Known about the structure:
This protein is mainly α.
Amino acid sequence: MKPASPGAQYTVPPEPSRMPAILLALAVHALLLAFLYFGISWQSNTPISVEAEVWDMKVETAAAPPLPAPPVEAEPQPEPEPTPPAPTPPPPTPKVVEPEPVKPAAPDIALEREKQRKEELAKKEREREIAEQKKREEREEREEQRRKELAEEKRREEAKERDDQKKRDIAEQKKKEEEKKKEAEKKLAAEKEKAEKAEADKKKKLAAEKAAKAKAEAAAQAKLDAIRGDELKRITGAAGSTGNAQKSSAPKLDSGYQAAIAAKVKSNTVYPGGDEPGNPTVEFRIEQLPTGEILSVRKTKSSGVPAFDEAVERGINKSSPLPKKKDGTVERTFPLVFKLKDLQ
Length: 344
């Protein structure tokens, strides 16, 4: 290999072959296997066999087999010229040689028969044991199958019993629910009947109270009409003769008394109000009985707002009977002035 000249491109040298190393490894392993094989073969010993002969006096002795002829020595051959040694091939795979069975000799016929008989007895015993084992296994299998069938039958019976119990429980629950429903319906019907009866009684009572109240109101109204007629007659008679004198000599109203009447009328007057300018004022002339019951309400001056005038008039009528003076008397007729701002 020439050295690379300066400035030349560097090249990677080729990788050496691995074949010699592989062949060397194979040769070493072959030698190791051969060493192990021959070492084990040299140390193996032929097993010692013990033979016994049984002689029966009744059996004639067989003639001894003829002895084998002595081996003939071969003539020496000239030694071949040595040849160069060839490369050692790998040793073949050792084969395990099984020993051939030793055939019994003629004198061992009785022993062989006895052995065969024992073997037959042992074989029959094994067959009997196998048959008994098979019978036991079949019997155990039948018993196991019977146990499984009994367990399955018991499981089915228990499942059926559970289903029947569940059905009975459902039926019992349904029966109880129906009884509760009937009891609730019965109770509801009784309560409804009781409520209807109470409502009828209430209606009867209200009708009776209403009739009594109407009767009392009619009697009071008749009495009031009679008093009012008498008062009108008295006022009319007094006005025809001395009306001017009474008007000129009428006493001045008590401010506290007038304020009490105005307060009561204000509490009974409902007017939502609007965008009316100023302070509209309305005046009424009220006539009442000695009991404070309003006899008549007459508007003497309008405020210019009809809704306000009507609201004040309704409030006056709702205020009957009107408050009395401290001494228990009333003014039979007096003016009442109301302003819009008084309601705010």
